[in-house]
Amino acid sequence: MVVVAAYAPTSQGDAALEAAIRDVAVTDRELLVASFPYADPFEGACCANAEEVQEAINRVSARMSHDERAYLETLKVRVREAGAESSRDIGDFLLRVAREENASVIVIGLRHSAPVGRLMLGQTVKRLLLEAPCPVLVTKD
Question: Which residue, among 32, 19, 40, has the nearest Cα to 101 in the 3D structure?
């Protein structure tokens, strides 16, 4: 079974990556990082590649226990980038990846919000919760 972590280089992406790594460390599943387009102020729209994802893994692993970091040494991480042919809709991309990979869970990061905004989830999150073929783990940055 595969854990799909939604990733873009933001604090929400880091939160999703960290939660996904902790999940695979306990469940011994495979980790697939679904890298979706984000707006870079200098480059425009781009996706994090495998090297950038590995840098993010190294960054979030600093907050993990010694045992979790040791497990990371043995973990093989796959990265799937949303290509140019991919829909611009992040929800479409994540749902497609989850179905094609027979995901056991999708892990996404959610922006920390004020108490008033806690009940108002974004459209992409709502769609994933309703249409995903597997459980969706939502974590805050």
Answer: 32
Residues in Cβ contact with 60 at an 8 Å cutoff, skipping those fewer than 6 apart: 14, 17, 18, 21
User: Cα(first)–Cα(last) distance of the chain, in Å?
Assistant: 26
Which residue, among 89, 129, 101, has the nearest Cα to 29 in the 3D structure?
101
Summarised one tens digit per residue, pLDDT across range 37-80 is 776 666 666 778 889 999 999 999 888 888 888 888 888 899 99
Q: Which amino acid is at 5?
A: A
In this structure, CATH architecture of domain 2-140: 3-Layer(aba) Sandwich (3.40)
Residue reference for tokens 């769609």: 127
pTM of the model: 0.86
The total number of residues written for the chain in this structure: 141
